[in-house]
Design a protein that fits this description.
By secondary structure, the chain is α/β, with parallel strands linked by helices. The protein contains 17 helices and seven strands. It folds into four domains: 1-41, no CATH class; 42-145 and 277-386, TIM Barrel (Alpha-Beta Barrel); 156-249, no CATH class; 392-453, no CATH class.
Length: 456
C-alpha cells in the first residue's frame, strides 16, 4: 500500500471514532469498499472472539465507537465481537448494523452495578463493596427499551450522574486549586452524556496538564508520593492513570463513596429491564477470591432461579499474572468456574473489556493456559450470536414463544443457538439462509429446530 493510501486509511479509521454518527457511517462504508476492492489488506478470519468490549458510549480506553469496534474485528480477522456499555443501550443498532456490513458475527450488551440482596453481607465482584454486583444483559438488538425497561434504565443513568457529580465535588475540594466542571469538562468527553469514573479521571489529568506549571510536583503532593516516583509513573501513562484512579477514586480515596442497598437498582429491577429488551441475563465473575465468589454455586443457583442463562468472564486477568503463586491460584479458580458453568448449562461470554488503558484488544487464544477451556469460550460466543441473529431476523430469540414450545431445557437451547451460530453468517447471507428455511416451511409456526439445519 502506498504511503498516501495508508494515510487515507488512517484518516478514515480516525473518523470511525468521531462523535458524529454520519461521519462514522460514511467512513465505515468507504473502508469496507476499499477492503472489498483489495486496496486495504485485512487479516484472514480465525477462531477468536472478544465479546466484552466497551465503546465510547461508556468508556473505551482506545476511543473506539461501535463502528470502530466492528472495523477492528474485520481488519484483524476476529470471527466474533461483542459490545457492552454501562447503563445504556446507545449504539446497539449501530454496532449490529456495522458488524453485518463488515461481515463479523456480533452481540450487544449492557452492564451495570446492582444490589444483590441475598449477598448483602458478602463481597462479590466489586472489591470492598458487599452486596454490590457487576451484572450484564447480553444479546440485545434495539437502542430503545420497552417499559418497564426504559424507566429502569433512566433511573440507572440518573443515579450514575448524581454519583459522578458528588465525586467531583469531593475531588475538587481535595485537589484545590485544581477543579473541573461536570458540564464543561466531563460531558464533552462523551458522545451521548453517559459519563463514567474514567471520564472524570481523564478530565482531571487534562486539566492538570493544562493549568499546573509543574504537573509532576502537583500530583506528587496530592498523591503523597515522592516526585521521582511520580515522574517514573508519568512515563507510562496507563500505569500513572491507574495509580491516580486508585488513590483518588477507589476505596479509601477522597472521592470514594461507600455504596449501599439504595446506591444502585436491585438485581430484580435490572432483570426486569433486560427481560423487557428480550435480552439474556448474564452473571459476571471476577476471580473467585471474594467471599461471595467462593460460594459460586450458591450465587449461580440464585441467579439462575431469577432468570440468568449465561456467565461473563474476563480471562486475561485470571492467568496473565507475573506472580507465579497468584497465577496458579487464579488459574485454578478460572478452570473451576468454567467447569461449574458447563455443569449448570451456562454459556460463557468472554472478553477483555477495553475500558482500562493497557488491556488487550483480544484474548490470547493461543496461550497454553487457555487451551483446556478455549472451546467453551468459542461455543459461548457462537451461542450469543445464534440468539442475536435469530432475534433480529425472525424474532425467534432465546425467550421467544417458538423457543419455549420447541426447546424445553437450557441445554437444548444452548445446543440449538450454538449450532446455529456456527453456520449462520452475518449480514445478508445469514438473513437469506434463515428466511429461505422459513419460506420452505411456510411459516415459523410450522418449524421444528432441525428445520434450520436442513441442506446445510
Amino acid at each position: 500500500m502506498a504511503k498516501s493510501e495508508k494515510e487515507h486509511q488512517r484518516v478514515l479509521e480516525q473518523q470511525l471514532n468521531q462523535f458524529d454518527p454520519e461521519v462514522r457511517r460514511k467512513a465505515l462504508a468507504t473502508l469496507v469498499a476499499s477492503a472489498e476492492s483489495g486496496e486495504i489488506m485485512i487479516e484472514c478470519v480465525t477462531d477468536i472472539a472478544n465479546m466484552h468490549c466497551h465503546t465510547f458510549f461508556s468508556f473505551n480506553a482506545y476511543g473506539y465507537s461501535p463502528s470502530g469496534l466492528a472495523w477492528l474485528a474485520k481488519k484483524n480477522g476476529y470471527r466474533l465481537i461483542g459490545k457492552v456499555d454501562f447503563d445504556v443501550l446507545d449504539g446497539v443498532e449501530e454496532f449490529l448494523d456495522a458488524c453485518d456490513l463488515v461481515g463479523v458475527r456480533s452481540s450487544a450488551a449492557i452492564e451495570s452495578r446492582v444490589f444483590f440482596s441475598e449477598f448483602s453481607t458478602r463481597e462479590l465482584n466489586s472489591p470492598g463493596e458487599p452486596g454490590v454486583y457487576y451484572h450484564m444483559g447480553i444479546g440485545l438488538t434495539k437502542d430503545v427499551a420497552p417499559e418497564p425497561g426504559g424507566a429502569i434504565l433512566s433511573d440507572m443513568q440518573k443515579r450514575s450522574a448524581a454519583r459522578n457529580q458528588e465525586m467531583i465535588r469531593r475531588l475538587n475540594s481535595f485537589l484545590d486549586p485544581l477543579e473541573i466542571s461536570y458540564k464543561d469538562d466531563v460531558l464533552p468527553l462523551t458522545p451521548a452524556g453517559n459519563a463514567t469514573e474514567r471520564h472524570i479521571l481523564a478530565a482531571y489529568l487534562a486539566k492538570a496538564e493544562k493549568k499546573e506549571k509543574n504537573p509532576i510536583q502537583f500530583w506528587a503532593g496530592k498523591l503523597s508520593l515522592p516526585e521521582e516516583r511520580v515522574w517514573k509513573l508519568y512515563q507510562d501513562p496507563p500505569v500513572f492513570q491507574n495509580q491516580v484512579r486508585t488513590k483518588l477514586m477507589k476505596r479509601g480515596g477522597p472521592g470514594y463513596m461507600q455504596p449501599g442497598p439504595d446506591s444502585f437498582p436491585s438485581l430484580d429491577q435490572f432483570h426486569q429491564a433486560v427481560t423487557a429488551c428480550e435480552g439474556l441475563i448474564c452473571g459476571a465473575w471476577l476471580d473467585g477470591m471474594s467471599a461471595g465468589e467462593q460460594a459460586m454455586k450458591e450465587q449461580l443457583d440464585i441467579l439462575v432461579s431469577k432468570g440468568a442463562v449465561a456467565l461473563n468472564i474476563i480471562p486475561d486477568r485470571n492467568w496473565n499474572i507475573s506472580d507465579p503463586e497468584i497465577r496458579r491460584i487464579k488459574l485454578a479458580k478460572l478452570y473451576e468456574v468454567v467447569g461449574l458453568a458447563n455443569q449448570m448449562d451456562l454459556p460463557l461470554n468472554i472478553g477483555t473489556e477495553m475500558n482500562t488503558f493497557g488491556q488487550k484488544l483480544v484474548d490470547d487464544f493461543n496461550a497454553p493456559e487457555l487451551a483446556p477451556i478455549r472451546q467453551f469460550f468459542m461455543d459461548g460466543a457462537y451461542f450469543i450470536w445464534g440468539h442475536t441473529v435469530m432475534q433480529r431476523s425472525l424474532g425467534l430469540g432465546y425467550h421467544s414463544q417458538w423457543t419455549r414450545l420447541n426447546l424445553h431445557s437450557r441445554k437444548a437451547k444452548n445446543s440449538f443457538y450454538t449450532r446455529l451460530g456456527k453456520i449462520v453468517m452475518p449480514g445478508s447471507p445469514g438473513q437469506k439462509y434463515l428466511k429461505d428455511r422459513v419460506t420452505k416451511k411456510g411459516s415459523t409456526d410450522q418449524m421444528i429446530p432441525d428445520d434450520f439445519f436442513l441442506e446445510h
